[in-house]
Structure formats: C-alpha cells, structure tokens
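Input (structure):
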C-alpha cells in the first residue's frame, strides 16, 4: 500500500495553481524521496502512484516526458526484481492508451521488465513483454541493428522454454534483415540460435553443421567454441546413418580440437564404423539434452536408433553376409526388428546390399559400409575383391592422414632458410 504522505504530496502537485517548472522540480524531489525512504511493496505502490500522477491531466505530454524518463532511470537502479516487475507492469498499463506519445519511455520500461523477468527465469513473460515493443513506428526511428537484436533475444528466450515454434518465427524475422547487419557478435547469436532450433527439431545433421561453423569463429570465447564443437559431435552421432553423416563425421574427426573432448571416443568409433557397446551408449546418453533422448514412433530413443543403424553399417564392414538371427543378436534386437532396420536402410540407399528372405540372410555389398557407393547385385556389376581392395586403400589413406595431422600438431615443421 502507498504511503499516505506520498499520496498527499502527489495530490497537492495536481493543483492547477503551481507553474509547470515548480511542479516538475517538486516531482523530481518527490521521486528521490520515494527511492530513499521506502522499499519493498510500499516502494512499488509509491512508484505506481507517481506514474499515475505525472500521466494525469495536471501535466501535459511535453512536461510528463522528462519526468517519466526520470522514473525509468530510477527503475533501472532498483535492485529488487519484484519491485521492477510490479511497478513496471503498472506503468505499461497506464501508458497503454497513450503509448504513441511515450514510445521511447514505453520501450525502455519493457527492456527493464524483460531483464527482471529473465533474472527470475520467467523466460516466456520476458519474451511477451519484448513482443510489445513498437519496432515499426513513425514516431521514432528504430535501426535494423536494434530490430534484429530484439528479435534474436525473443527467439533465445523462447528457446529456454523449448518453444521452437515461437522461437523460429522471430528468427525468421531476423533472417530477413541479417544481410544489413555488420555486428559480428549479433550474427553469431543468430547462428547459434539457428543451430539450437535445428537441434530441438531433431534435424541433427543440419544442427551439427551449424554448431561446427559457430565453433570455428575466432570471435567466440574458447570455452564456448569447445561447447559448440561438443554439441556438433553429439548431433552428428544422433543423425541418421548414411553417406551425409559420414562426411560430417569426417570433418569433425579431422578437427584437431576434437581429441580433447569427452565425446571423441564415440566420434572415433562412428567415423571408423566400429561397433559401439551398450556401456558406451549409456555413458554418452548421460550428457544429452532431454529432447535428444525423446522416444520415436516405434518406442526407441533417437540415440538407440542412431546406434543400431551405425552398428548395422559396422557389421556390413565386418561381414560379407550374415543371417538375420545373428544380426539381431549383434544389434541386441529380435530377428524381425533387425531385418526391418536393414530393409529400411537398403531402401533409403544408406546401406548397399540385398536380403534373401527365403534363407534369412543379408548380403552386404557396399564399398565402404556407409552406402556411399552402391553395388548392383542384380546385374552382377563389379568385383567384390576389387571393392574390398578399394575400401582397404581408402581406410589406409585415412589412417596415414590422421597420423600425419597428429605429428604436425606435436612437431611443427620449420622452414629451412
């Protein structure tokens, strides 16, 4: 409840007998008194009465603007988020019918309120407050920088609550003006937000590439770059097995920073098409976000599905053919499920081979088990021995390149003069 003394003094200032200059000076003195002598709920009520008084009929728009500006500056300096929220909300309601005359002050109050809600971890309310900003106005000029910064901030606030639909709508607004922006940090914020949306929507392959691009920027702090690279590896692991993922895994595996991350172990096995054990899957799952552990339509998690498909590719490099029953044992699935996974990957051309359903045997025929080059069994094209030879040569070349990169990082080559 407001202080009776403050209410009485504010009522006296609404008297028409005093000049505007005297009223303005008294309002500023009274505002300072409110800030010095009251706190908590009483401070919030006193500030609300102050706003109502300066927006009343006793003062015109010209006199009220600087006083409202002084109120805004005072609101910024208040430590209590609760007081900021209570008083700021009241001020916005009072300005609602006259916002055209006080757009600058309305925008400043909304920024303060959004910060307060963010401190309280109420991200949706912070986003809603910022949505009320008048960014397309004839009364004040809003730069493209401010527009994009505001939209990206709203996007990031919604992402904190996993509301990717609302986040993406504001990111798309920012995208339309991004070509006009020179601020490198703002562009990086856009790229990171885009990566997070792709990640949340389970477009893991695109998300991995976006995170990796972000991690390569020298304008980002080293720990943030390492975190982004870690997210890039996680998303690549969760992506559907196939040639596209193999290329992304190759880029990440060759990144010299990847050796230092905890995720490098599973990245190495994924890239080299080695089988991954259930224990390794369990340890990796502990570091994933909740949406990355969500269950798909068939009841399995995204991670489990990715590992099964990967192990199936790994099996295609170990075996020329395998029975459906043995494949199921290898993948910890029943024979029917194992056959379904193989059939789907063969149909999508992410795995090369064929299934003999009569004898219950799967024949593998890709050059590299990643489905990048398909063998045509029906026409008898190609020689299996030649394909194996090519695959071994490719693997040897990759090993040599990896060892060469490692040696160069440890023993830099010096130019001889």
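Output (sequence):
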């Amino acid at each position: 409840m407001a202080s009776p003394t403050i209410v009485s003094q504010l009522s006296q200032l609404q008297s028409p007998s005093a000049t505007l200059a005297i009223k303005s000076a008294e309002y500023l003195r009274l505002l300072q008194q409110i800030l010095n002598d009251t706190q908590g709920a009483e401070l919030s009520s006193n500030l609300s009465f102050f706003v109502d008084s300066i927006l009343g009929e006793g003062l015109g728009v010209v006199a009220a603007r600087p006083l409202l500006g002084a109120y805004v500056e005072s609101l910024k300096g208040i430590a209590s988020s609760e007081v900021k929220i209570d008083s700021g909300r009241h001020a916005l309601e009072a300005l609602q019918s006259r916002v055209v005359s006080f757009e600058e002050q309305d925008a400043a109050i909304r920024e303060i309120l959004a910060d307060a809600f963010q401190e309280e971890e109420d991200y949706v309310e912070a986003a809603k407050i910022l949505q009320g900003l008048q960014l397309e106005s004839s009364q004040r000029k809003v730069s493209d920088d401010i527009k994009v910064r505001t939209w990206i901030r709203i996007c990031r606030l919604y992402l904190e609550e996993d509301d990717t639909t609302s986040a993406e709508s504001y990111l798309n607004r920012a995208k339309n003006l991004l070509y006009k922006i020179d601020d490198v940090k703002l562009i990086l914020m856009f790229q990171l937000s885009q990566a997070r949306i792709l990640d949340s929507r389970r477009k893991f392959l695109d998300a991995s590439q976006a995170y990796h691009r972000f991690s390569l920027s020298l304008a980002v702090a080293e720990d943030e770059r390492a975190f982004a690279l870690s997210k890039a590896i996680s998303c690549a692991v969760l992506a559907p097995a196939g040639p596209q993922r193999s290329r992304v895994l190759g880029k990440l595996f060759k990144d010299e920073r990847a050796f230092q991350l905890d995720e490098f172990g599973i990245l190495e096995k994924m890239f080299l098409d080695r089988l991954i054990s259930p224990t390794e899957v369990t340890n990796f799952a502990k570091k994933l976000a909740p949406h990355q552990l969500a269950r798909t339509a068939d009841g399995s998690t995204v991670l489990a599905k990715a590992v099964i498909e990967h192990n199936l590719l790994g099996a295609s490099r170990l075996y020329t053919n395998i029975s459906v029953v043995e494949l199921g044992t290898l993948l910890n699935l029943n024979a029917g499920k194992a056959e379904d996974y193989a059939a789907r990957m063969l149909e999508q051309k992410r795995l090369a081979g064929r299934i003999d359903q009569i004898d219950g045997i799967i024949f593998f025929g890709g050059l590299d088990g990643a489905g990048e080059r398909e063998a045509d069994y029906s026409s008898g094209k190609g020689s299996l021995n030649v394909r194996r030879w090519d695959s071994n040569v490719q693997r040897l070349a990759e090993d040599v390149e990896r060892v060469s990169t490692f040696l160069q990082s440890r023993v830099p080559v010096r130019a001889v003069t």
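Notes: The beta strands are 321-323, 353-356, 361-364. The two ends are 83 Å apart (CA to CA).
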